[in-house]
């Protein structure tokens, strides 16, 4: 390691330690999560995180929350917002059935690629994106909605560091966007807090998106600490209620969510960008995210 790289990593660690001062109430302690994030930063992981109290908007902690990070599938939330805005009671698109085509084909996450049915209603495709981050459903919705419409919606929401950049692709060539989506922890935390409060586009649209996200079956990152059933957590469980979206790609682990508990509710975002060359590196990142989740759980419960 060069001296400049070492200095850079120590600076990131110092930044994380400075962020600890944001949690200044006597009954708040995010030190375990901060310590873990600091160790990851020293090991070369790029870390960005933020958590806010949902009721007051107070920042509980932040680590480089302004930095734009690759967020993999989290950008699909912006697509869901645009879909939800078109599915009002007066809209004929609420009954639109969409066909999958060979050009939409893509692997990895999702269930539709394994099903026989060639067509599904828009709302069902959105539910599949919320539940399993379905890549095929995502591409069919993007083809129907258009990336430009998603970008226009993103700009209308005032987001400048967060975007869905492309279709989902099995392989990214030199002419493709380098990432599926990008985002800053600050903007993503605001987006999820606003969804939870019914402030994105309208109360109806927000509730529809929250409903889809509450189906998410990926509780492998921050939410691994919450003890919820990955396949069934739409109703309160031990007074906990979660909606979240995760993003996974080579060297990328990212999660945004809202966790409600008996004492408080929080909106949070944690993104990690790392060299995924060894299983131990990946497990350390997931461990760090889980530790942040444990601190959030202690705050709300």
Automatic annotation (TrEMBL):
Enzyme nomenclature, EC number: 3.5.2.6
GO MF annotation terms: beta-lactamase activity
Origin organism lineage: Bacteria, Bacillati, Actinomycetota, Actinomycetes, Micrococcales
Keywords: Hydrolase
Feature: compositional bias, Basic residues: 10-21
Broad class of enzyme this protein falls into: hydrolase
Pfam families: Beta-lactamase2 (PF13354)
Name of the protein this chain belongs to: Beta-lactamase class A
InterPro entries noted in UniProt: Beta-lactam/transpept-like (IPR012338), Beta-lactam_cat (IPR045155), Beta-lactam_class-A (IPR000871)
Record carries keyword Lipid biosynthesis: no
Span list, region Disordered: 1-30
UniProt domain Beta-lactamase class A catalytic: residue ranges: 51-273
């Amino acid at each position: 390691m060069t001296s400049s790289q070492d200095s850079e990593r120590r600076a990131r660690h110092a930044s994380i330690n400075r962020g600890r001062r944001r949690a200044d109430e006597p009954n708040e302690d995010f030190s375990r999560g901060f310590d873990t994030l600091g160790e990851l930063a020293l090991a070369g992981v790029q870390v960005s995180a933020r958590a806010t109290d949902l009721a007051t908007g107070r920042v509980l902690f932040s680590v480089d929350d302004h930095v734009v990070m690759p967020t993999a599938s989290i950008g699909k939330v912006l697509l869901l917002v645009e879909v939800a805005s078109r599915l009002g009671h007066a809209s004929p698109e609420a009954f639109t059935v969409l066909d999958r085509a060979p050009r939409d084909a893509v692997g990895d996450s999702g269930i539709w690629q394994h099903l026989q049915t060639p067509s599904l209603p828009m709302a069902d495709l959105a539910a599949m994106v919320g539940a399993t981050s379905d890549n095929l459903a995502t591409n069919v919705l993007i083809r129907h909605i258009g990336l430009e419409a998603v970008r226009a919606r993103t700009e209308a929401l005032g987001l400048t560091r967060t975007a869905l950049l492309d279709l989902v692709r099995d392989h990214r060539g030199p002419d493709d966007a380098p990432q599926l989506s990008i985002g800053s922890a600050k903007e993503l935390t605001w987006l999820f807090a606003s969804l939870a409060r019914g402030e994105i586009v309208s109360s109806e649209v927000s509730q529809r998106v929250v409903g889809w996200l509450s189906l998410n079956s990926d509780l492998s990152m921050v939410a691994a600490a919450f003890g919820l059933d990955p396949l069934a957590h739409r109703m309160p469980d031990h007074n906990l209620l979660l909606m979240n979206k995760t993003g996974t790609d080579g060297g990328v682990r990212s999660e945004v969510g809202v966790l409600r508990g008996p004492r408080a509710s929080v909106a949070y975002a944690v993104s990690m960008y790392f060299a995924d060359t060894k299983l131990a590196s990946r497990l350390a990142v997931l461990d760090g995210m889980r530790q942040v989740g444990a601190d959030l759980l202690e705050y709300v419960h």
